[in-house]
Amino acid sequence: MLYSLGKKNAFIVLFILLINTALLAQQKNFCSYVSFSGITATGASITETDVSLIVKSIMQLQALPQNFSMQPTATVDNAAAVIDIVNGTSKRVIRYNPQFMGSVNNTCKTNFAATVIFAHEIAHHFAGHTLNNGTSNPDIEIEADIFAGNIAKRMGATLLQAQSPILAYANTKTDATHPPQSARLIAIKNGYDAASFNAAVPQAKATNTNNNYNIATIVKNGLALRNRVLTNTEIGYLNNGDARAANLNAETLITRLPPGTPVEFLYNKGNFYQIKTTINGQIQTGYIVKQYFGKSTLEGKRINQQQTIYAKSLRAIRPYKIAIFICAIILGIIVLFFFGKKFLKNKK
């Protein structure tokens, strides 16, 4: 066959085969989300910043450090947990196709879709599936789906939203690496049913007291706490009473925080703050808008700082003022005594 291709073409084929062999030697234990390729992905690619936010949200629920890296690449069709060998050292990696992952939320009609897929791949590393020699098998895929369903519920997804990637992409028949769609839907449900809403979020104390605020009193009807940042278009739906607002609230609204609710500021994200607060005895992380009718939705820190500075300044100034006052009295007495004595002397 190589002779029929000609020496030049044969050399190219052999070179490609050697490169592929070398790449395979550097990658072990490939666990992908679905087993077949040819998935059509349209639209903008997911950004690395958005991926980082999704993964951070998942890891916060586990109270564990992230011991794997996220790698965008067109060499995978969807997403996969792998072990890479770098200079003889095993590295945990989750590879994902950025265009595919950028399209899943639109395809599945929910912003939880990408989260569910990444949670599934994270589960492969958590459960040690990537430590076994070989690739995916139906049993470990079921375990990863159970974990993904559990995470989805704790992040506020409905069961249908948690199952949406399986409904959209999973094969209806079993194969060597993945179970059938029906079994995976059951696995998602089992994980979903086993979870309490956000039950595993650690009871952490505020890490920085300078970041403690209250929900502003101007928010009379409560401030929406959401499980993700909204786009400007979605904010427009809510402000304009668009028919899509109801579905958006059903998908993203965690609860409403009444005025005066204590919160801890975590970081800025566009028009939103990520904050942490306590709801029914459980620590809850979410997003709130920065402004409400042109005024800040958080209050307390700046006021407290001003009060503290004022109190400190009084404490610092008071001894000084007292000293000046005493000196002024003494000086006044001396002056009066001196001029009084002189006046009496002159009078005599």
Q: Tally the beta strands.
A: 13
Order of helices and strands: HHEHEEEHHHHHEEHHEEEEEEEH
Mean pLDDT: 78
Query: Sheet bearing the most strands, described?
Result: 5 strands, antiparallel
Strand content: 15-25%
Termini separation comes to: 139 Å
Instruction: Tell me the strand order in the biggest sheet.
Output: 10-9-8-5-13
Number of helices: 11
Uncertain spans, ≥5 residues at pLDDT below 50?
1-5, 12-27, 198-209, 302-314
Radius of gyration: 32 Å
Structural class, by secondary structure, is alpha+beta
Could you estimate the helical fraction of the residues in percent?
Answer: 40-55%
Envelope shape: elongated
Report on the structure:
By secondary structure, the chain is an alpha+beta fold. Helix content is 48%, strand content 20%. The protein contains eleven helices and 13 strands. It has a five-stranded antiparallel β-sheet with strand order 10-9-8-5-13. A four-stranded mixed β-sheet has the order 1-3-4-2. Helix 5 crosses helix 7. The longest helix is centred in the last third of the chain and has 47 residues. The radius of gyration is 32 Å and the shape is elongated.
